[in-house]
UniProtKB/TrEMBL annotation:
Compartment annotation: Secreted
Required co-factors: Zn(2+)
Active site, per annotation: E375
Pfam families, per the entry: Peptidase_M14, Propep_M14
Originating organism: Anopheles merus (Mosquito)
Function: Involved in the digestion of the blood meal.
First and last residue of the signal peptide: 1-19
Organism lineage: Eukaryota, Metazoa, Ecdysozoa, Arthropoda, Hexapoda
Protein's UniProt name: Zinc carboxypeptidase A 1
Amino acid sequence: MWFKLTLLLVAAIAWGGSAEQARFDNYRVYEVSIETERQLKTLQHLELNPDGYSFWESPVQTNMRLSIVVPPHKFAHFEELTVALALKTRLQIEDFQKVIDSERPMRSTRATFGWTDYYTVDEIYAWMDQMVAQNPTILSGSVYGKSFEGRDLKAIKLSHKAGNPGIFIEANIHAREWISSATATWLLNELVTSSNAAVQNLAQNYDWYFIMVANPDGLTYSKTTNRQWRKTRQPVNALCVGADPNRNFDYMWMTGGASSVPCSDTFAGLTAFSEPETKAMADYYATIADKINIQFSFHSYGQYLLTPFGFSGAPLPSNNADLQRIAAVTAAAIEATYGTRYTYGNSASVLYTTSGSTVDYFVGVHGTKLGYTFEFRDTGATGFVLPANQIIPNAEETLNGIIAFVAEAKTLGYV
């Protein structure tokens, strides 16, 4: 009986049956380096049988670092584990709940949409609709599908004239990465309102396509129930909900860096495009792919600028030298803004293997020449819970990076 009750409780939490928001008082976050096969296999087993632990990245290979959230009742166990495995660890966060509590200092006082706080899906969509209504000659909105829970999947296009090269940006495909949609909305606002000549050059001479919230069900759940939620919200079985949408695209699906275990944060889905959100985005992209010269995926955290491909044994793209040259120029422009240092390079080489991702799909299937993943601030002090007072600095340095990116891409003949 106790076992059955426990299963029901776990299922209720996963399905959102509990209205109370999860708290993480005194939970610690540790960065762990995986150096040996024994360490890797043990951590993979722990991810499958977490008993309170949660992983911010899945253990997919040796020579990688990941972050583990450790609940108070597991402190002694974690210490024993690190000794037994000779794990190299670093305490990132002493009390995770305190970081969450300080994430949104303006949440009780905001009156209008802005960039000193993080917003809900409905608030972001309302702002998008308002922007289109206020700028009907250059902005147009569209609904390209429905999420599993019935929310609109919305895109917005900025275009001053026909025939412009296209730039596509998708954000918040991972639910807990709130800084991604906050940065995307800030960028669109700047493109529409800025008087800076470099920004207006981007606005007037390029068509911009934005998906501000690629995973609206997940983003909503991360705000109402569990700040750590990453996946979609379509149930898989009685205990597990959601797939990792950035492992669910139908290009080299399940060829490294993804899980077949439904409760894993990197579960790739029962099949490629099992999630309505990913299939709808792919279908939408297919209608504009011939117009897209540059594609960006916005994520957090780690301060990386990543190039394709990510799957196991993947070849480097034929234009890899150009990809790295552009990345170097972009990273330098980002650092010149506020001193934020980005690591750049092939995603499988400088971070870890992935498969079924948006960038690999757009480049591999549609031949988009320039596809990049931004992993925004920070390097672990707050992780996914980046304080809202960093939204604008993060966005400003990203914009400066994009200005430099497009200029270099133009020099190399891509736009």
